[in-house]
């Protein structure tokens, strides 16, 4: 299960997709992350379940660079932004740094980008396609859910027992939206 409280990677925006075959299932977490030790702005795909192709969780073949943010940290100045090869004008972005929460200006630029460009920043359908076995049916996609914490295992969240019902029955209508989702980046900062 992805650890949104990871000390080395900041999860900015995530999407959870649910798949099953006749006898297996998998959960795909498609996330926009700020990874200073990696390429900075990245898309990361993490898989959980018995139907996973390759290893569970984070796998080096499941991270992508959807764009690049170049900033002058001393002056809080954006030098350039590209997403999927296209230059992005930073002027319309609403960047509101709070250095008590996160000291990296690039993180705050990534947050502002995700507000407008989330679809382009997530791993694309062609990037995730190799990780979904061909006999698996897509059941459900969520942008908000109750994600497990260190103190709360998946079985004790609102989300995952409901997702288990979806997986057992193959019926997406079994999904019950959660009252208080915690998958937004602000629920995991500061660390």
Task: Briefly characterize the structure.
The chain is an alpha+beta fold.
Write the layout of secondary structure elements.
Elements (H helix, E strand, L loop, with lengths): L9 E11 L4 E11 L4 E9 L14 E2 L2 E6 L4 E7 L2 E2 L17 H17 L3 H4 L8 E6 L16 H11 L22
Antiparallel strand pairs: 1-2, 1-8, 2-3, 3-4, 5-6, 6-7
The gross shape turns out to be globular
Number of helices: 3
Poorly predicted regions: none
Spell out the helices and strands N to C: EEEEEEEHHEH
The residue-averaged pLDDT reads 94
Number of domains: 1
- Cα-atom radius of gyration: 17 Å
Q: How would you classify the quaternary structure?
A: single chain
Distance between the termini: 18 Å
Helix content: 10-25%
Helix-strand makeup class: alpha+beta
Q: In percent terms, what proportion of residues is strand? A: 25-35%
Q: What composes the largest sheet? A: 5 strands, antiparallel
Strand order across the largest sheet: 4-3-2-1-8
Count the strands?
Answer: 8
């Amino acid at each position: 299960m992805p650890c949104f409280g990871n000390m080395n990677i900041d999860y900015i925006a995530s999407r959870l997709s649910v798949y099953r075959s006749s006898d297996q299932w998998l959960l795909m977490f498609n996330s926009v992350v700020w990874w200073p030790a990696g390429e900075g702005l990245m898309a990361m795909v993490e898989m959980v379940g018995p139907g996973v192709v390759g290893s569970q969780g984070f796998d080096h073949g499941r991270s992508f660079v959807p764009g690049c943010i170049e900033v002058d940290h001393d002056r809080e100045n954006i030098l350039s932004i590209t997403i999927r090869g296209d230059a992005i004008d930073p002027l319309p972005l609403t960047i509101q740094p709070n250095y008590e929460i996160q000291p990296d200006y690039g993180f705050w630029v990534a947050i502002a980008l995700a507000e407008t460009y989330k679809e382009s920043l997530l791993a694309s359908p062609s990037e995730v396609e190799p990780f979904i076995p061909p006999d698996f049916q897509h059941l459900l996609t969520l942008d908000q859910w109750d994600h497990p914490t260190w103190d709360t295992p998946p079985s004790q969240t609102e989300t995952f027992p409901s997702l288990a019902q979806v997986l057992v029955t193959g019926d997406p209508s079994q999904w019950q939206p959660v009252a208080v989702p915690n998958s937004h980046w602000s629920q995991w900062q500061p660390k």
